[in-house]
């Protein structure tokens, strides 16, 4: 209420003051007066059309209301006005990430990091998108490169631990997907008995090579944490499940009579 009164007095004194309209908009949002708040926020943006931050603030409000079409249009306008503003890029990344537009979100997060490399939140956002796109080793590297803000060390440790759990459990999922694909192919094109054993060996070798390349791509601290007491349980369980799936697939390919 105090902010609303201050904003109204400021607008009365300077009707063209964009920041006063923005403050009024947020004060009205806190009071639950959504339509009036949106009108005030839009008025603030219109008074400073070259200020991309104002447009992106409005885009974020519309996004939180699940008005995705309007949010995207406003985000595009903000990016056009302020393509080199780190916060605008970061918020655009969040909007597109939540819309599952991972490629576009990735490009915005990467640009935000270039503009403000010290902000760990931007690296966490990029890591989430990379993980969603299957770039799990790059995701881990991105998290471990982040320098947490003072007081946020615990959050950083939790993000690192969650990222490495995701890396470890990616491999059982990949093995199960491989089993499904191979089973489908074998059903459509039955494997001749003489090719079963070589094919089983090829599958195991290809999977081992993919695992080793992903493991080698991890930064040294990531590899260390995989084998640390806190991470060993997940890594061991995931590795055991992966081995069971691969052995089953190889056995089927090697001994199945078709």
Describe this structure in words.
- The protein has 258 residues and is mostly helical.
- It is built from 13 helices and no strands.
- It has helices at residues 2-13, 18-30, 34-47, 52-64, 68-81, 86-98, 102-115, 120-132, 136-145, 153-188, 193-217, 220-226, 229-255.
Which structural traits does this protein have?
mainly alpha, 258 residues, elongated
**Which class best fits the helix and strand makeup?**
mainly alpha
Strand content: under 5%
**Rg (CA only):** 25 Å
Biggest β-sheet description: none
Number of alpha- plus pi-helical segments: 13
* Low-pLDDT residue intervals, each spanning 5 or more residues: none
- The count of strands amounts to 0
Task: Give the helices and strands as they follow along the chain.
Answer: HHHHHHHHHHHHH
Helix share bin: over 70%
Overall mean pLDDT score? 82
The N- and C-terminal alpha carbons lie at a distance of 77 Å
- Taken from the alpha-carbon principal axes, the silhouette is elongated
List the helices and strands and how they pair.
Elements: H1 2-13, H2 18-30, H3 34-47, H4 52-64, H5 68-81, H6 86-98, H7 102-115, H8 120-132, H9 136-145, H10 153-188, H11 193-217, H12 220-226, H13 229-255
Helix pairs in contact: 1-2, 2-3, 3-4, 4-5, 4-6, 5-6, 6-7, 6-8, 7-8, 8-9, 8-10, 9-10, 10-13, 11-13
């Amino acid at each position: 209420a105090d902010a609303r009164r201050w904003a109204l007095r400021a607008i009365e004194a300077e009707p063209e003051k964009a920041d006063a309209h923005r403050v009024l908009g947020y004060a009205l949002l806190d009071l639950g007066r959504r339509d009036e708040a949106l009108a005030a926020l839009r008025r603030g943006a219109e008074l400073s059309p070259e200020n991309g931050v104002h447009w992106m603030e409005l885009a974020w409000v519309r996004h939180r209301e699940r008005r995705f079409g309007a949010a995207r249009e406003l985000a595009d306008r903000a990016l056009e006005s302020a393509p080199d503003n780190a916060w605008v890029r970061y918020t655009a990344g969040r909007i597109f990430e939540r819309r599952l537009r991972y490629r576009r979100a990735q490009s915005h997060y990467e640009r935000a990091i270039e503009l403000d490399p010290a902000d760990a939140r931007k690296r966490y956002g990029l890591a989430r998108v990379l993980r969603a796109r299957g770039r799990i080793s790059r995701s881990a590297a991105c998290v471990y490169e982040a320098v947490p803000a003072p007081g946020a060390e615990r959050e950083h440790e939790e993000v690192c631990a969650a990222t490495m759990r995701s890396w470890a459990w990616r491999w059982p999922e990949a093995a199960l997907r491989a089993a499904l694909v191979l089973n489908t192919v074998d059903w459509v094109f039955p494997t001749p008995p003489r090719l079963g054993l070589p094919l089983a060996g090829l599958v195991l070798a290809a999977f081992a090579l993919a695992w080793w390349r992903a493991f080698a791509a991890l930064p040294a601290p990531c590899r260390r944490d995989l084998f640390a007491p806190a991470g060993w349980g997940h890594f061991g369980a995931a590795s055991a499940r992966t081995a069971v799936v691969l052995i089953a697939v190889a056995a089927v390919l090697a001994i199945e009579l078709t």
